[in-house]
Design goal:
eight-stranded parallel β-sheet, two-stranded antiparallel sheet, lyase
Length: 306
């Protein structure tokens, strides 16, 4: 495989557009017309993306609840499967889940998506429940994490708002979710939010205020267990910090298509190409690290080489 593997790449199932239109809700910043299978392939070719792992464009997991939410998640997963099955070398997908507050429905969809649809992982919102008080590490969601941990799942946590990524990461650390469920491989998008820049602040202050059971070192080690994608991460400044913070095998390429303008996506991707990295680092961040994370892609690559 000689092209990028994009782990932060959205798609818009027709069922999502229909549900949002019916509910009278269109998320801020959406350009629904920017995505189509044809536009997607064109963008991938322009950026040298060999494989994209699709996740549903963020519409807020709390909008659709109960049977309606479960039905929408199923439609998204079947649509994602259809795209992957038509072009398995070009696409994979993260499963969409219904509102996690309904644990039974969520676990049913995890099992269906991973067992029947062979999804490459699952996508989660950073919070669930009314008023966004149930963050991803909340005790009410522990059965979800147990199921994902049992399956050694890749878990892509996507924000609704810009600050959600950092908030979700710290919550997963402080609730000990990261250590309790070590088989889950959690991806943070967009350079990990502010985590690489701010991680020492909660690590030190919370420990000194006796508000955390973690030592400073334990907190920082937990923070470095996340996988982090490079969507909207410039090669001159942010990527330099990220490579000092993250473990070298946990930096992955991401684009965030189609939310930012295509010109913006290209700018950040190009800046990563000319960053002061070794050739090995460039290849690892672009695709080799992702191959290790997704067994299906690793197997495809090995078959191509035979």
């Amino acid at each position: 495989m000689a092209g990028r593997i994009d782990v932060h790449h959205h798609f818009i199932p027709p069922a999502v557009l229909e549900a949002l239109d019916k509910a009278g809700r269109v998320p801020l910043g959406w350009q629904a017309s920017a995505w189509s299978p044809e536009n997607d392939r064109k963008m991938c070719q322009n950026l040298g993306i060999a494989t994209s792992i699709l996740s549903v464009i963020p519409f807020g997991g709390v909008v659709f609840k109960g049977a309606e939410g479960a039905r929408l998640a199923r439609q998204c997963n079947e649509y994602g499967k259809s795209i992957r099955d038509a072009q398995p070398q070009q696409y994979g997908f993260f499963a969409t889940l219904p509102d996690l507050i309904n644990t039974e429905l969520a676990i049913q969809e995890i099992r269906y998506a991973l067992d029947e649809c062979k999804a490459d992982g699952v996508a989660l919102w950073p919070f669930y429940g009314e008023g966004d008080h149930d963050l991803g590490g909340h005790r009410n969601l522990q059965l979800i994490w147990e199921e994902l941990n049992r399956r050694h799942a890749v878990v892509f946590v996507h924000p609704i708002r810009e600050y959600d990524t950092t908030r979700a990461a710290i919550d997963l650390i402080m609730t000990d979710t990261i250590r309790k469920y070590p088989n889950c491989k959690v991806i943070l998008p967009c350079g990990g939010g502010c985590l690489p820049y701010l991680a020492a602040r909660p690590a030190v202050i919370l420990a000194d205020m006796k508000l955390s059971s973690l030592t400073r070192g334990e907190f920082l080690e937990c923070a470095r267990t996340f996988y982090i994608d490079t969507a909207l991460t410039d090669g001159q400044f942010a990527l330099s910090l990220l490579r000092q913070f993250a473990k070298p095998d946990r930096i992955l390429f991401g684009s965030d298509f189609p939310l930012p303008p295509t010109a913006s996506i290209k700018y950040f991707a190009d800046s990563q190409n000319i960053a002061e990295l070794s050739q090995d680092e460039k290849e690892n961040f672009a695709w080799k690290n992702a191959l290790k994370l997704f067994p299906r892609l690793q197997s495809q690559c090995e078959n191509e080489e035979k």
